[in-house]
Amino acid sequence: MAVDPRGTDLKRYLQEDPGGPVVMLNLLRYAEGGRESYEQYAEALRTTFLPRYGGEILYAGEGSTALVAEAGQDWDAVLLIRYPSRQAFSRMVADPEYQQVTAFRTRALTEAVLQATTPW
After folding, report:
1. Which of 69, 92, 103, 117 is deepest in the core (most CB within 10 A)?
2. Alpha-carbon span 28 to 114, nearest angstrom
3. What percent of the chain has a predicted confidence (pLDDT) above 70?
4. Angle 55-58-59 (CA atoms, 0-180°, nearest 5)?
5. Cα–Cα distance, 91 to 88 (Å, whole number)
6. Structural domains of the chain, with CATH
7. Greatest CA separation found in the chain?
8. Residue 61: which residues within 8 A CB-CB, separation 6 or more?
9. Is the entire prediction scored with pTM above 0.85?
């Protein structure tokens, strides 16, 4: 299962841009011992990359009781991160310094959902 966006994913993401800010939904499932590695990634994201690209954490929390979910659909963590534009997010993931830090995220996760959302 992929945990990082691929080039074709990012290309489609930019082609489908409705304009304006984007809120990225992150659903995360940690590998054994992965929480610590993810925390290293999250610290760099929070202190360096989100400020650099205008991103803002709207919500970050641990998964809890799943009320409506099939077996295996529960998540360890949920994040909502707002970026000023899809281009800002794309520039961040293309940043060579950011790419070095993503190894912590990749190593930390066994499964992830990263989905752009648009307001109703």
Report:
1. 92
2. 9
3. 99
4. 130
5. 5
6. 7-65+73-117 (3.30.70.100)
7. 40
8. 77, 78, 79
9. yes
